[in-house]
Amino acid sequence: MPPFDFVTPSSVDAAIAELRTGAPGEVTVLAGGTDVMFDLDGGKSAPRRVVSLRRLPWRTVDWNGPVLTVGSTLPLRSLERDPELPRQHPGLLQAIRAVGSVQLRHRATLGGNLGRAAPASDLIPVLLALDAEVDVVGPTGARSLSVDQFIRGARSTALASGELIRSVRFPEPRPSAYLWQRVRPANDISQIAVAAAYSPSDHRWRLAVGGIPPRASRVPEAEEMLGTAAPTEAATRAAAERAARHLTIVTDRRASEEYRRHLVETLVERAVRAVMVSRPELR
Amino acid sequence: MTPTSLALTVNGKPRAVEDVPASERLLDTVRWRLGLKGTKEGCRSGDCGACTVLVDGVSMLSCLTLTHEVEGTSLTTIEGMADDPVGREVQNAFERAGALQCGYCTPGFVVALAGLLRERGRSATVDELLSDLGGNLCRCTGYLSIARAVALLRPEAP
Amino acid sequence: MHRLSFDRPRRRAAPSGGPLIASGRPDARTKLDGSAVFGADLDVPGMWWAALVPSPVAHGRLRSVDLSPARALEGVVAIGAADLAALLPGATGDPDRPIFPTDTVVYRNQPVAAVAAPTRELARRAARAVRVEVDPLPVISDLEQVFPDWPGSNAESSPYVAAHVRAREGDLDAIFQGAETVVRETYRTSSVHQVALEPHACLAEVKDGKWRVRTCTQTPFGTREDVASLLGVPEESVVVEGTWVGGGFGGKGAALLEPYALLLAKATGRPVRLALGYREEFLLGRTTLPSVIRMETAVTGGRIVGRRVRLLLDVGTSLPGRDFATGYSIGFLLGPYRTPAFEVEGYAVRTNKPAFGPHRAPFAPQCVFVLESHLDHVAREAGLDPLEFRAAHLWKEGDTTPLGQAVGPFGLVTAFELARATAAQWRADAGPDSGVGVAVGFWSTGTGAGGEVRLRLSPTDLTVVQGEREIGSGSVLAGIASVAARSLELPRERVSVAYEDTSSAPFDSGVFGSRTTAALGRAVQAASLTLLEEIGKRLGGSGPVHLAVRAGEIVAEQGSTRRPIRELCSDSERSAGGIVASGRHYGTSGTIDERKVEAGTFYPYTDFTGAAHAAQVTVDRATGTVRVTRYAAFHDVGTVIDPMTAPAQVEGGIVMGLGTALTEEALWSEDGRLLNAGLLDYRIPTLGEVPPIQVTFVEGFAGAGPFGAKGLGEPPMIPVPAAVALAVRDATGAHVTELPLSSERVARALKLL
Predict the structure, then answer these.
(1) What number does CATH give the domain C291-446+593-749?
(2) CA C17 to chain CA centroid, nearest Å
(3) What is the CA angle B94-B97-B101, rounded to 5?
(4) Yes or no, beta carbons of A266 and C623 under 8 Å apart
(5) Residue A107: its chain B contacts at CB < 8 A?
(6) Cβ contacts (< 8 Å) between A256 and chain C: which residues?
(7) pLDDT digit string (tens) for B44-69?
(8) Complex-level ipTM
(9) Are the CB atoms for A150 and A134 separated by under 8 Å?
(10) What fold is seen in the domain B81-153?
């Protein structure tokens, strides 16, 4: 691997300035680093400079009324162990636990996961189902966009040159569930994953399916079919079928197209039921 | 610019490591510069846990960590477990339970478990601890003897 | 004339010790404190780093290997085929296994050159800099490309056939014609890797005319022989020193890296370290490859009247005439069932992959999965109870194997009955999506390969000096020590096992084939007899000699005479550490009836080691996901030699078997690339997937080892995929004819897709 410089700026402004010192691809941002390592090893990325974010003040969890704001460089394990999370965002907790291992989660971050935009990310489906917003800072100031807008495609985000993810905001606690199908229960990548959430403020459902390239996506037509509040068995099944039919899925070495479609249908049904079970008012 | 000298505390002792390239992994620094071979190189891709070390008491995969990232921190490896009461407890439990065969995964398990016990405190159940050890692979034991070792550490909270 | 007294154990079955077994692993501390040195930990001053240059294609004509861009990097030494003559003057290596190919490359990543440099980074860069030009040739990536249908006549002369075996008895066509029920099925099994957590690694140095290599090998002497043969140098000039081994499972039983490291050590004049990264472990690994197996069974009146077995086994680039897998494995598609008439035929098919190599119980778990699943299916098709059907045919002592060998003491029926009873209990309280499967298997303790040990009796301790490193099972450090302690009636704490390298250790064949405790144990017994005889001479009396510990030291007693060893030692013996006696085990095996053999080589068994397992699973009927919720293993072990390491072997083997059963599958592309060469995409079981496992040993059916012991390293793996598959069938009716039982395959068998 060609040598690179390593810098650890201690302020956000300094970090942004570092990013602008090179052409695209020449400067790589390091949050937890667990994904960046693969690119460095595989030769996919040969940066001139790596900018570590470890000194930035973004390892924070802030509960402010209904809004949860998570700093982008907070290790996932810290969020996982937050005592409020199981009650407020159970689906998010399930998703975090699905990421790698404890050791990995001591370094992996929300910001890193989002920035990587891996098609099989275990976090992005839940972020979509929770209508999470990404707060970005850069040379032209700060802006926010939905996760849906932020993730453009496989390994592609809406981050402009010089921008960094500062935090991820969850507007309200939602009964939610994250279910996945994998070859083995631990330390694996999902063949298919489904995040389901119910919004107590607009009474609508959110369904996001992950594990299918290029990126996790919501399935609005299926969400519609779930209605407002507790869908019937028939409506749930219909929504699940719709989700399975609607998505563009290909066969790869992890699973065939037909099996994936079948899994989408099964997991959507189960995720919706899991959400309803967790909240009696929805039954 | 990349610092030429990195200050670390390693198993309780201050160590300065010179001329570490920015691309160097903590695993390689520990094994080849610090000469501490107890931490093992397994998959080198973050999937097996054999390279687990503690950074400021927190378990991490040294194969996926750039050494420069841990500048100024306190590093604990398997060699430092004997100096730590929790580490010693874990080693003794593994020995009593015969929780090892070839021994290659053993340092990773011991360090990961020592880190977990400190992180989760006395209230963590055996099942919770075992679930949190999912990132450590073993090919010889079938894990049951390791589970028995963990149970020895938590007799009051099965 | 001295006889060793030992218990002839009565026949009994006992569950293994409770949750905590007294610690007895002498290697525990060094492995727990990080001081144990494995192959990859070797580090000496002035050491250089090596890297292999891989072939970029799986099959091609080598046009050129240009080392100059590597040599242009300062400090780099590079070697290729053209350099061998200078490095090995006057030597003729093995023409069938050249160090570097000169004409054709036959598998992807086949080493075509090697480099060494002062740093790891530089070595890697240098390896990448070498320019390899190959004209691609068509790649044979799987055996169905060679034989889309069953091979026709004369197929054995095809260049793609490395071995052909055939044996028969009886007129099968007539038998099948007249039978009540005939069932025909085709099964497929996948490639699985050993996945020892430690990758291959070694440190080589050429000094004082000796080719010295320190390496994590299961077979120091085997590696020595292999290296000598490959380099074309005398065996005595090669010294192999084994390090601790981080798991072998058959993958560290032959030379792999050592020849390259040694040649680079010679070329550089320095110690050279060569270690594989984990991806390379997969890419270069020699292991179990895929197979297609056809089974046909004819049944009349509830009894098997004839069987036909056809095996197509992918053996990668195995050399013709050097394949044992087909002839050996095919026995596990026949036994342990009485078969009055049969026809077996197997083809070892060459493809462009690294050669087939031994895994734990090589290819037997796959064969047993096929056989048990098939016989279960046959019974159902014939309207018979599947367990009764199999029970009715199980071998007992005195039966004859299809190839004419007499079955020796064999506890399989006892083990099977215990498994069946357990299964019945579990089924009684099982839930709706739950099922239980019972599967049996057998193995043969590897005492067909010989070995020798030296005993050294000091005034206070006994040391067994031998040439194997402990690879994890405990067979060396605990098993052999136990045999020595029992043979000489000394407390275990006074017995230790010492390792010496090939320059001074007595010869042994290696740690494989479930042979170590048994074969070296026999050598220990022989040495013990010699030792007691020698002591008897020194005591001067007549009658048996016994050793005992009195007042903290070892004494020898003969009748009313008692003398401490301290007094019986000569001065030179005292300074050399004690009285020394050697003992050998000469490899022995049974014989088969060659009249039944029409082609190829079949292998006799040394003893008959039985295993019966019961598995309970829960199947998610919507996704096909299988979860193993309970497991019980009943092992016919002859005698339990070491009560701590024995159950540990069973637990470990079962969990490894679960991987083969459910999640492990190496996937190859059409151009001969291994697609999932890493521990994320090649999935071995994790802690969370392990069920509670109950282990019971059946003792008293004597095997080939000391005190009637049978080898235990491999048998625990053998019935596992079968037990799981039968449990899945019991739970859901789904009949899966492929390994592994991935959730997608189960889903298809459940007709969900």
Answers:
(1) 3.30.365.10
(2) 26
(3) 70
(4) yes
(5) 60-61, 64-65
(6) 744, 753
(7) 999 999 999 999 999 999 999 999 99
(8) 0.98
(9) yes
(10) DNA polymerase; domain 1 (1.10.150)
